[in-house]
Specification:
single chain, mainly alpha, Arc Repressor Mutant, subunit A, two-stranded antiparallel sheet, 4 strands
């Protein structure tokens, strides 16, 4: 064995490492034990991470994030019929299912909707789509919705902007 010895101390991680011959380690045994006692009895050092600042877990921030993630219900009536009747005349089928999906998403706990739920909401308004899945797929291609998992979707920011245009106050044809 060559005569290299190594002592490594990392106060941030509270690590202490000594490497070398048995005689070298034994010659520093008293110092090692006193150092370990100091580490054991002292509080961990405060680490200021400037690259990744600590996460704000305050209730206010959590509420803000929740409201950003789950679109606010501002402007969304309690009934889908009322929401649907705000749609401009001559809206396309893809727009109708997007609106229905948004309504369902805004009222759901998981902030998602399925094709079946959106199609059923439209059926309740007397609107029967020939193939709802095709219109959901068109919205996905146009980036109005995002597929979250098999059969579950969320309206994207682009989709929200599109919906805002579909519900504009003048309701042009």
């Amino acid at each position: 064995m060559d005569n290299k010895a190594k002592i490594r101390i990392n106060l941030n991680l509270r690590e202490f490492e000594i490497e070398g011959s048995e005689d070298f380690v034994n010659s520093h045994a008293a110092k090692i034990e006193s150092f370990l006692t100091i580490l054991k009895n002292s509080p961990p050092p405060v680490i200021h991470d400037t690259v990744n600042p600590p996460k704000d877990t305050s209730e206010k921030r959590i509420a803000k994030k929740s409201s950003e993630h789950k679109q606010t219900n501002d402007g969304i009536p309690d009934s889908f019929g009322e929401y649907y009747h705000g749609l401009k005349k001559g809206a396309k089928e893809a727009d109708k299912i997007l609106l229905a999906g948004h309504f369902i998403q805004s009222k759901s706990e998981d902030n998602l909707f399925s094709t079946k739920e959106a199609a059923t909401a439209l059926l309740d308004q007397g609107v029967k789509l020939s193939n709802p899945t095709v219109f959901v797929n068109r919205n996905e291609v146009s980036k109005h919705i995002i597929k979250i998992s098999k059969g579950k979707f969320r309206v994207s920011k682009t989709g929200l902007e599109h919906i805002a245009g579909l519900l504009s106050a003048d309701k042009e044809k």
